[in-house]
């Protein structure tokens, strides 16, 4: 299994409020994280950094994940615990009042991948069925699409596109979505913040992901494309590729 993490401030923002990474526990299983922070003065970076750091620490101390049920339980419990940490911090530190962060995280083993998400950071998969989004955005426009009030095409340019309905840190309790998939040789996961998904189409992502470039080149090309299309937001991604290890970097 190979993986790369990359983040970029974009072309407009003064600072990067995204965080993430790829972390390995003692058993060699990987946890990939992308978190997109939001809030007042510097609070967005605090929220996403705290989410990443706490999940990283918990993961590195975790036991081997044997089953999908164990992976889903780990993500559910620990993301909810981290939500409580962020909520308490936001209530006790005036500068961080109202801070929050999206999170999309994937536990990747040699047999399956389990994905959790809160907010509108996304996970996509490329496999034998093609390239598709695995997660559902917890956003106002996605709810409008789901209820049939607007089309998916309308959602791309909706004025309320950036309104997120669910994040870590803003409420005492949080609910998250969980999904487990079989992860097979040559399958690829792409986790990203909306700085990528709002600018680069699924067709363009698919073209880059299935190219013969190595993972670092693929990540760089995705970020360059988002910046080419305006780069109004921070851009963060993780690519995880399940291979036999004999080729490509």
Structure, briefly:
The chain is an alpha+beta fold and 249 residues long. It has a single domain, classed as PPM-type phosphatase domain (Phosphatase 2c, domain 1, 4-Layer Sandwich).
Mean pLDDT rating? 92
Beta fraction: 25-35%
Q: In percent, how helical is the residue content?
A: 25-40%
* Principal-axis shape: globular
CATH class: Alpha Beta
- Total of helices: 7
Named CATH architecture:
4-Layer Sandwich
DSSP strand tally: 11
Measure the end-to-end span.
10 Å
Query: Can you write the helix and strand succession as a string?
Result: EEEHHEEEEEHHEEHHHE
CATH topology: Phosphatase 2c, domain 1
Gyration radius, to the nearest Å? 17 Å
GO molecular function, one term: metal ion binding
Protein name: protein-serine/threonine phosphatase
Enzyme class: hydrolase
Catalytic activity: O-phospho-L-threonyl-[protein] + H2O = L-threonyl-[protein] + phosphate; O-phospho-L-seryl-[protein] + H2O = L-seryl-[protein] + phosphate
Structure description:
By secondary structure, the chain is of the alpha+beta class. The chain has one domain (2-137, 164-241): Phosphatase 2c, domain 1. The chain has seven helices and eleven strands. The strands form two sheets. Strands 2, 3, 4, 5, 6 and 9 form a six-stranded antiparallel beta sheet that branches. The longest helix is centred in the first third of the chain and has 25 residues, at 68-92. It starts with a strand and ends in an 8-residue tail after the last strand. The model is unreliable at 245-249 (pLDDT under 50). One of its GO terms (molecular function) is protein serine/threonine phosphatase activity. Its EC number is 3.1.3.16. It catalyses: O-phospho-L-threonyl-[protein] + H2O = L-threonyl-[protein] + phosphate; O-phospho-L-seryl-[protein] + H2O = L-seryl-[protein] + phosphate. Keywords: Hydrolase, Manganese, Metal-binding, Protein phosphatase.
